[in-house]
């Protein structure tokens, strides 16, 4: 675990993952400043106790000073579909934002970075579980921009001694009390299933029922956001000057779309109508992580791997949101 009393800049800390990691950092006794432009985040998601700066990563130089121990960089545009229709937005915000952030860190003398990368850098895997040495062949601009930033970080570490860790998340799910997933539009399966349980959608579409999987539906690796957050705290300790460590984060244990829907029916006690739809282009049958490196190098031990528990936490959050509306 990190020593207490450090000072961290969390970009994107008004979003889903950034807010939960900020809450973990505060609980561990650190000081946190959130930098977020609220483009997809929410002011009320910034945990109490964190300082908040409403601003863009592109302007990080205005806010950074040498008093920070590290930056955790979550801020990005992350809708896969939108990245296909508006790729320039993704290259500008994700890659342009990272260029500006790295320059600001260099000027301020901040030498440690933890970056939110993604399983989307791998594209359609040749084998599963996916290891970090698998070929990277993103199938959409979102994944391509994240891979470009990973390459940028590798060269920054070599040239300037940056201590960097990229964490490649698989499907993040669940909630941390009042901090949970609020994407608009939502494209992730568990929140969509829960919106259907709430009657906010008529049915949940199942894209493809003829995949070579046990029940014919796609299999994905769901990781609880609290387990994910713990990996970030460990990454801050593991980062070494001049090195860029890349770790996948997943459970190594896949669940099918049908298993998710069935488990959500049990957890919520609600009817969740489903509609069979055709396969979507670029949707691999199985996407499951090998997180051996995170276990070995970071000492990471995910403990919330039960699908019903992940969905139950997301359901509690979804109901809180509903009653707040
Ligand atoms: N949620 C997942 O399943 C998942 C999976 C893989 C990777 N990731 C990555 O994790 C990170 C966080 O994802 P999330 O689900 O919390 O997304 P999110 O949209 O909830 O959070 C992103 C936050 O960044 C802010 N932001 C975006 N561009 C900004 C900019 N230029 N300057 C300042 N703030 C900006 C947004 O307002 C938002 O609060 C992203 O980088 C995403 O690509 C997420």
Automatic annotation (TrEMBL):
Give its E.C. classification number.
5.1.3.2
Annotated NAD-dependent epimerase/dehydratase domain residues: 9-248
Entry annotated with the keyword Cytoplasm: no
Q: Which UniProt keywords apply?
A: Carbohydrate metabolism, Isomerase, NAD
Pathway listed: Carbohydrate metabolism; galactose metabolism
- Names of required cofactors: NAD(+)
Pfam families, A to Z: Epimerase (PF01370)
**EC primary class:** isomerase
Q: Which reaction does it catalyse?
A: UDP-alpha-D-glucose = UDP-alpha-D-galactose
Q: Which family does it belong to?
A: Belongs to the NAD(P)-dependent epimerase/dehydratase family.
On assembly, the entry states: Homodimer.
Instruction: Return the PANTHER family for the record.
Output: UDP-ARABINOSE 4-EPIMERASE 1, UDP-GLUCOSE 4-EPIMERASE
Q: What is the designated name of this protein?
A: UDP-glucose 4-epimerase
Q: Which gene encodes it?
A: galE_2
């Amino acid at each position: 675990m990190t020593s207490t009393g450090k000072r961290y800049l969390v970009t994107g800390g008004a979003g889903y993952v950034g807010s939960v990691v900020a809450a973990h950092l505060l609980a561990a006794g650190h000081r946190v400043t959130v930098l977020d432009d609220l483009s997809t985040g929410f002011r009320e998601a910034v945990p109490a106790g964190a300082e908040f700066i409403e601003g863009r990563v592109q302007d990080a130089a205005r806010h950074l000073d040498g008093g920070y121990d590290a930056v955790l960089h979550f801020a990005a545009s992350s809708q896969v579909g939108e990245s296909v229709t508006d790729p320039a937005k993704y290259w500008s915000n994700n890659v342009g934002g990272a260029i500006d952030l790295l320059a600001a860190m260099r000027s301020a003398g901040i030498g440690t970075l933890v970056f939110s990368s993604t399983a989307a850098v791998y594209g359609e895997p040749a084998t599963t579980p996916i290891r970090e040495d698998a070929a990277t062949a993103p199938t959409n601009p979102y994944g391509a921009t994240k891979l470009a930033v990973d390459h940028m970080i590798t060269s920054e570490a070599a040239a300037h001694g940056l201590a960097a860790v990229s964490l490649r998340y698989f499907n993040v799910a669940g909630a941390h009390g009042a901090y949970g997933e609020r994407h608009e539009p939502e494209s992730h399966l568990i929140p969509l299933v829960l919106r259907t349980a709430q009657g906010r959608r008529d049915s949940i579409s199942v894209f493809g029922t003829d995949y070579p999987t046990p029940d014919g539906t796609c299999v994905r690796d769901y990781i609880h956001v609290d387990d994910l957050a713990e990996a970030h705290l460990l990454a801050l300790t593991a980062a070494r000057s001049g090195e860029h460590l890349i770790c996948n984060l997943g459970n190594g244990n896949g669940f099918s779309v049908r298993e998710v829907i069935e488990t959500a029916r049990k957890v919520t006690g609600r009817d969740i109508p489903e509609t069979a739809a055709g396969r979507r282009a670029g949707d691999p049958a199985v996407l499951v992580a090998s997180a051996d490196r995170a276990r070995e190098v970071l000492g990471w031990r995910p403990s919330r791997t039960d699908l019903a528990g992940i969905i139950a936490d997301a359901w509690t959050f979804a109901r809180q949101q509903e009653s707040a509306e």
